[in-house]
């Protein structure tokens, strides 16, 4: 496969923190023209679909409000709801496990797979298991995990990291996918073309036997209902149904925040999620199951409740709303930064606007001690122009711009715990001194006008230092000859 | 009406033509404009860069400069910037609350209630869409993100522009996508910002407009800088400049477009 | 129970630091139902439109016409799986198709070899083009409507409601039953956002509306 190299090129060190700080990582991804074309096409398509189907519902805003309020309620009653969920899953024959972190969750899952004597598992696409690096852990333990979602399969075969929450292979086009299948899928048909239908059918054939014979399946969960113990997975291809229905044992890994209190709440999220996510009125398949049903589906069910930093996020009064996220990915489809840089620039399995507020919180970046230099996740809250498109698109109204600004404050505070001030800190301090007084500001504004002697004509070309990035592609207008205040005093005296 | 002008720090220093045009326009419409001299900045730059503590005294200065509106000194405050009005409405109280200064938060919120972005003042408060302007140029309008999503100016600027005599107003493709400015974002993530403004400018050029307008000079500086560097012949003007322009006192561009020929590769 | 107690303690501690008073009450101002009555011609029309939009095939029949419709749909199937409580098993046995009962349960490979499956449903949602199965004897266990490549679902018209909340109200009477919500045949848009119907689930979905 000469043309298909893993993206990113280096194997990630940690699923939530794998690369360079955002500006450096974006430098790499911005140079990948193919990826940018793939992304621009994909995000535009899905964005338009979402707008069409959300406009169709007269009560879309009321649904968003209800979704936001339910999530808020879940967070404030989380201890009781978790215990209620555990009780109801157990009462229906399921087993509930608790995992403080990735390592504990991986160990629990590995032990469960081993106990069934299996060395192979099939997997439903799941962000929670991405986040804990479960596949890599299982592999190290001699267990083969096969991703069964088409995009996840592409990512797994290519040795990539996902670059989107919903469409993890969004950075690849059909020709690249054809090469990946032809080169890495042992039973790929000869003469495979890049036609999406042909590629999908190759995946169907490849996975069919695995589905019919797998003993253990691993999934995530889109939501779980505390009052009934019901768990739900929303999907499109039927690979989810295969995993959730055919094997004898099912292990579901779920973040502790994915709860809803009542069964009735399903009516809200079953409307918000598909329309925000794939831009469909309803995703092709949704499975809901409650513990174990004799004679139908897996007869052994394990639910692993995962913290892995969620309680750190919950402790932050502004940032905790990141836990309201239902992983629809609408924010990345509307984000102009994401559209240009792609998901890999975020260096986390959670890319885009939600990733920029979730990743640093799960890791507790900047919460204590001073910030290490070049901390990749500390750069994430700054990876936004604060345009607000994400907030507008979010089905549960997470105020991502406000959370970004709040987390920027946290990063700056942590940075200031270092012994030496940064250039930014010094600049901001002197700017504050000027901007806290009209008279000092007037002096500064006049001085800016004097600076125009350095400029040729009405604009300034390339500049060194911190403005180099700006002036490499743009001119800067020369400061005006007369500041506004100078004009105003003249104007005022003319009026009199 | 007696209207206090919040000129905004960036316009005061770099783009006085926007507050000047705001003054001329409102005076032409028969209103009295005042300039509270204690003003400097709303605090947005510090807030959005993460220096929230340093933003507190900046906010305090702003609130003190405009507090007389609470005593009925002026009928309203106007700013030729959606972004700064957005910060006044949505950030100042938050910044004060964060350090536990409830009094400042309350005052900031009260001042914010009297603060309007220019198109809001004209359409909602003064009840105007036709302000008697004359602007015989082909123009395209970029709704800046904060005007659109923080202040929700909606189609007010477009209604005002459509009523301008002689204007040839053309739609901007993908108008609602960000131009890539984002304050210090353009410096901290310069390459990403450059990619964003590149795409925005391609859309602007595709309209064949001579003038690109918006309600924020910060975004116009970004897009205008790129347009100028590439010698596109498109220049920028604030919405206030277009609305202030008349047959008798026509618009004088602050920036002459750098012609394509003048640029050496 | 060590991890359990530790996580619950962390949650309590986090809330003590971040909770700003009680959460606002959940206001459900969204539509609990619509002007379109269950089973009305408008509901059927809407359901049909939505299902067809997602490449399902929709047919209508009365009791007398059902055999002919099913005969047409299953003409090329060869064999058809039936759940244990399907009301139309007798009818299917009169057709030119091998009928496979699921008692005792068929193996996965046997299911995979079957040409089609016929099931009933619990409820259908017109606005979203969704049918919902809840595993009762007329629908069978979940694997039946999953593994055979052709799913024929027979709905009674009074099962068609307009909105998601109306369907959830029906399903909420027995939330513990395993549910499968189906909106069109299996599909993926993972390659360049091009929709391809039929990946792992049945590639053909026929919905017959009865009555």
Could you characterize what this model shows?
The complex is a heterotrimer of chains A (496), B (265) and C (211). Chain A is an alpha/beta fold and 496 residues long. Chain A has helices at 22-30, 33-55, 60-76, 78-91, 102-115, 127-131, 134-140, 150-158, 174-184, 196-213, 239-245, 266-277, 310-314, 330-334, 336-341, 352-363, 389-393, 400-416, 423-435, 438-450, 468-471, 484-495; strands spanning 95-99, 120-123, 144-147, 216-219, 223-225, 230-235, 249-255, 259-260, 285-290, 300-306, 459-460, 476-477. Chain B has two domains: 2-125, Rossmann fold (3-Layer(aba) Sandwich), CATH 3.40.50; 138-244, Rossmann fold, CATH 3.40.50. Chain B is built from 14 helices and eight strands. In chain B, the strands form two sheets. In chain B, strands 2-1-3-4 form a four-stranded parallel sheet, with helices on both faces. Chain B has a four-stranded parallel sheet with strand order 6-5-7-8, sandwiched between helices. The termini of chain B are far apart. Helix content of chain C is 27%, strand content 23%. Chain C has helices at 2-18, 41-53, 66-73, 89-93, 108-113, 164-171; strands spanning 57-61, 79-82, 98-101, 116-119, 123-125, 130-133, 150-156, 160-161, 179-182, 187-188, 196-197, 204-210. In chain C, the strands form three sheets. In chain C, strands 1-12-7-4-2-3 form a six-stranded parallel sheet, with helices on both faces. In chain C, strands 8-5-6-9 form a four-stranded mixed sheet, with helices on both faces. At the A-C interface, helix 2, helix 3, helix 4, strand 1 and helix 8 of A face helix 1, helix 5, helix 6, strand 9 and strand 10 of C. Strand 9 (285-290) of chain A pairs antiparallel with strand 9 of chain C.
């Amino acid at each position: 496969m000469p043309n298909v190299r893993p993206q990113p090129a280096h194997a990630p060190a940690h699923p939530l923190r794998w690369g360079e700080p955002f500006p450096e990582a974006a430098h790499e991804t911005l140079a990948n023209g193919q990826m940018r074309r793939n992304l621009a096409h994909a995000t535009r398509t899905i964005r338009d679909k979402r707008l069409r189907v959300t406009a169709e519902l007269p009560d879309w805003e009321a649904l968003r409000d209800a979704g936001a309020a339910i999530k808020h309620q879940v967070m404030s009653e989380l201890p009781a709801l978790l215990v209620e969920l555990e009780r109801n899953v157990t009462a229906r024959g399921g087993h509930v496990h608790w995992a403080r972190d990735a390592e504990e969750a991986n160990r629990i899952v590995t032990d469960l797979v081993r106990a069934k004597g299996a060395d192979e598992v099939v997997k439903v696409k799941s962000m929670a298991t991405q986040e804990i690096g479960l596949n890599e852990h299982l592999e190290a333990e001699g267990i083969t995990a096969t991703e069964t979602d088409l995009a996840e399969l592409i990512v797994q075969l290519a040795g990539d990291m996902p670059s989107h929450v919903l469409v993890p292979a969004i950075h690849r086009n059909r020709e690249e996918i054809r090469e990946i299948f032809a080169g890495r899928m042992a039973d790929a048909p000869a003469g495979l073309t890049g036609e999406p239908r042909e590629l999908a059918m190759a995946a169907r054939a490849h996975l069919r036997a695995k589905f019919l014979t797998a003993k253990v399946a691993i999934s995530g969960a889109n939501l779980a209902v505390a009052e009934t113990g019901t768990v739900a997975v929303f999907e499109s291809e039927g690979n989810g149904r295969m995993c959730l229905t055919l094997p004898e044992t099912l292990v579901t890994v779920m973040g502790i925040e994915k709860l809803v209190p009542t069964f009735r709440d399903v009516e809200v999220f079953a409307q918000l999620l598909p329309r925000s996510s794939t831009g469909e009125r309803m995703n092709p398949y949704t499975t809901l199951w409650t513990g174990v049903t004799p004679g139908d589906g897996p007869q052994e069910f394990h639910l692993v409740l995962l913290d892995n930093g969620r309680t750190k996020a919950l402790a932050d009064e502004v940032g905790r709303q990141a836990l309201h996220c239902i992983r629809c990915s609408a924010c990345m489809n509307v984000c102009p930064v994401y559209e240009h840089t792609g998901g890999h620039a975020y260096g986390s399995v959670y890319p885009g606007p939600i990733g920029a507020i979730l990743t640093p919180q799960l890791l507790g970046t900047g919460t204590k001690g001073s910030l290490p230099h070049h901390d990749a996740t500390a750069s994430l809250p700054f990876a936004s122009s604060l345009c607000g498109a994400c907030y507008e698109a979010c089905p549960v109204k997470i105020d991502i711009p406000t959370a970004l600004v709040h987390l920027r404050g946290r990063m700056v505070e942590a940075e200031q715990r270092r012994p030496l001030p940064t250039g930014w800190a010094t600049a901001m301090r002197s700017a504050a001194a000027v901007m806290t007084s009209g008279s000092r500001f007037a002096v500064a504004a006049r001085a800016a006008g004097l600076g125009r002697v350095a400029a040729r004509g009405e604009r300034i070309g390339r500049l060194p230092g911190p403005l180099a990035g700006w002036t490499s592609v743009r001119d800067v207008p020369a400061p005006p000859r007369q500041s506004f205040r100078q004009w105003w005093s003249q104007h005022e005296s003319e009026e009199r | 009406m007696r209207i206090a002008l919040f000129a905004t720090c960036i316009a005061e220093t770099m783009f006085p033509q926007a507050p000047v045009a705001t003054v001329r326009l409102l005076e032409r419409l028969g209103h009295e404009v005042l300039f509270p001299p204690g003003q400097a900045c709303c605090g947005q730059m510090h807030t959005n860069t993460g220096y929230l503590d340093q933003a507190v005294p900046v906010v305090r200065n702003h609130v003190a400069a405009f507090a007389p509106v609470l005593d009925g000194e002026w009928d309203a405050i106007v700013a030729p910037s959606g972004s700064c009005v957005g910060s006044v409405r949505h950030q100042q109280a938050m910044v004060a609350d964060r350090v536990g200064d409830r009094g400042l938060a309350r005052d900031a919120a009260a001042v914010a209630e009297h603060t309007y972005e220019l198109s809001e003042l004209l359409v909602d408060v003064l009840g105007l869409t036709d302000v008697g302007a004359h602007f015989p140029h082909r123009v395209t309008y970029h709704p800046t993100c904060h005007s659109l999503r923080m202040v929700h100016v909606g189609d007010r600027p477009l209604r005002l522009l459509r009523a301008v005599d002689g204007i040839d107003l053309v739609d901007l493709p993908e108008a609602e996508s960000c131009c890539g400015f984002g304050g210090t974002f353009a410096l901290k993530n310069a390459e990403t910002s450059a990619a964003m403004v590149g795409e925005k400018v391609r859309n602007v050029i595709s309209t064949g407009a001579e003038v690109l307008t918006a309600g924020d000079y910060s975004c116009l500086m970004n897009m205008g800088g790129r347009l100028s560097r590439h010698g596109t012949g498109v220049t920028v003007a604030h919405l206030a400049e277009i609305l202030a322009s008349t047959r008798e006192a026509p618009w004088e561009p602050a920036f002459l477009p750098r012609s394509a020929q003048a640029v050496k590769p | 129970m060590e991890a359990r107690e530790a996580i619950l303690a962390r949650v309590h501690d986090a809330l003590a630091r971040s909770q700003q008073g009680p959460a606002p009450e959940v206001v459900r101002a969204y539509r609990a139902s619509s002007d379109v009555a269950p089973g009305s011609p408008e509901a059927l029309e809407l359901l049909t439109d939505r299902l067809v939009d997602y490449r399902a095939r929709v047919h209508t029949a009365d009791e007398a016409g059902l055999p002919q419709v099913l005969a047409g749909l299953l003409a090329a199937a060869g064999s058809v799986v039936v759940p244990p409580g399907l009301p139309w098993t007798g009818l299917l046995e009169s057709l030119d198709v091998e009928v496979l009962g699921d008692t005792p349960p068929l193996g996965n490979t046997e299911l995979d070899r079957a040409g089609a499956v016929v099931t009933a449903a619990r409820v259908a949602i017109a606005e979203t083009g969704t049918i919902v199965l809840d595993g009762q004897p007329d629908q069978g266990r979940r694997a039946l409507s999953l593994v055979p490549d052709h799913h024929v679902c027979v709905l009674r018209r009074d099962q068609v409601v307009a909105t998601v909340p109306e369907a959830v109200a029906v399903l909420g009477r027995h939330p513990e039953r395993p549910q499968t919500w189906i909106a069109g045949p299996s599909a993926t848009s993972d390659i360049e956002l091009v929709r391809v119907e039929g990946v792992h689930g049945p590639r053909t979905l026929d919905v017959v509306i009865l009555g």
